Amino acid sequence: MVTNLKVQRRISLTVYHGLMLLFSLLMIYPLLWMAASSVKPNGEIFTKASTLLTDSPSFEHYTTGWRGFGGYTFGRFFSNSLLVAVISALGMMLSSAVVAYGFARIRFRGRQFWFTAMIVTMMLPGQVMMIPRFVLFNEMGWVGTFLPMTVPAFFGSGFNIFLIMQFIRTIPFELDEAASIDGCGKYSSFVRIILPLIVPSLVTVSVLTFMGSWEDFMGALLYLNKPHMYTVAYALKMFNDSSQADYGATFAMSVLSLVPILIIFFFFQKQLVEGISTQGLKG
Amino acid sequence: MVKNAPRSLTLRERMNRPNVAGYVFILPFIVGLLVFTVIPFFTSLYLAFTEYNVLSPAKWVGLDNFRKMFYEDKLFWTSFWVTFKFALIQVPVKLTVSLLVALVLSRGTKLTSYYRAAFYIPSLMGSSVAIALLWKQLFAFNGVINQALGMLGLPSNQRWLGDPKTALGVLISLGVWQFGSSMLIFLAAIKNIPASFHEAAIVDGAGPVRRFFSITLPMITPILFFNLINQVIGSFQAFNSSYLITGGKPLNTTLYYGVHLYNRAFNHYEMGYGSAMAWFMLLVIAAFTALIFRSSSAWVYYESEGR
After folding, report:
1. Which of A14, A73, A181, B123 has its CA 20 to 30 A from that of B183?
2. What are the Cα distances from residue B145, in Å, to A29, B198, B219, B247?
3. pLDDT tens-place string over residues B252-294
4. Which of A99, A108, A240 has its CB closest to that of B133?
5. Measuring CA to CA, how many Å separate A139 from each of B56, B143, B222?
6. Are B29 and A155 inside 8 Å of each other by CB?
7. DSSP type of residue B8
8. ipTM score of the complex?
């Protein structure tokens, strides 16, 4: 009887893992296929679409794709994306941390009002803002620059402020009190006490912002109008439009465009999972 | 605080008063709120009643944009219903899949973190241009999907993206493929349920199905509610997949509201008309959100209520 149960358990566990492995493979298969297609000769991509293997793998697509278009290589597009994403991530991290401290640790008049305003704006659909923001940036002469894609990050965002606030709340108040007895004001206690302790949440915020900015297509579509300014997301779309037949090169550049996302995933998996999971907490 | 009447406060003391320091810290948020949200919000409301092509000043036209929207622009209604259909199918499917997978994953094993990674990676990349271009090729006439169907002996000559009956389904499949982040939120919620609840139920003789409907599901309704609202708001604003994969074709069966709005505003420079469309969408989203909120008291369980 006991062995019977054991066997039953083993069978059910094997079935479980078998199904899970199959489903994982199914989920990842499109990505594997893209990677495989990027090293297949163009003639084979669709004639042998069902197999991931090829007899003659080559990195030729990477060199032809890298040449880019309009006189600019993908090197240019990658450095544009990197610039925009890094600046956005830094700006978002700093501003959100400062605002989160204000909301979480200082009891000032009107705090509840501004906090509610923040929660309400988190639910506003972005597309309502699309046209008036474009009009605003156009008036300011910012269209055709990276400013519309970076400057707003320096004013924090509801979700990120909230995420850091949740983190600050886990730090005991006694630390602030001790600092204040030692003569620390609000500003130095923020810089010296709180900031070093909330680094994990700052990493989460910058990683999420970096990825959002790296993949942002809409911003580039609205605000970038010259090839030398294109970010990877936008350049990829333009490249695909201009080289319809060269599937291999498009796949190769697509794979490269996802490399930063994969790197971030492997190094910051814990922070990402935590960041996404805490999203639910505000509900 | 000690009031020190004769000596006026030093700058340092002034700056450290809660009502001053608080506002110093949240200043970036207030400025951002005014410049990037409040002003655009009201500008957009004003523009909705004007004709404006960016180059010449906005001209007040009253309700004309709305009249055009409801009575003249056939694509307005087409795109509205396409988006409605898209949301109506994608939201429940995606939520069901993410909840089911979260349940299966909540049975922790040594391999769980690998499975979780495999399910989660697509949602990290899903909104990128690279994946949109990939999806287009997967569902091409000679793409992977048709070849796989052929290998299974099924009909393999479907023009997925060219057929008005299937094109929207392809875009929905891309959305569902990205179930990972809502799955993670569900997973966190499921793990938060005290183990004692399940233990007590097992003692009472409840099977896994009964425990799901009597314990797990009620306990995670607040998260279900949160995911539902998020997904509804997100689906109504979908843009990338239609713009990049189908361009709204065939026969406008995949023309999302957002894409139509973009075309009118930025290809035809009808910023006033686009703003009117945006406001209509805002009202529709607000109505749906309100509806979900209203219904929530009937199905969302909050522990503090102690029902």
Report:
1. A14
2. 11, 42, 39, 21
3. 999 999 999 999 999 999 999 999 999 999 999 999 999 998 9
4. A240
5. 12, 46, 43
6. yes
7. P
8. 0.89
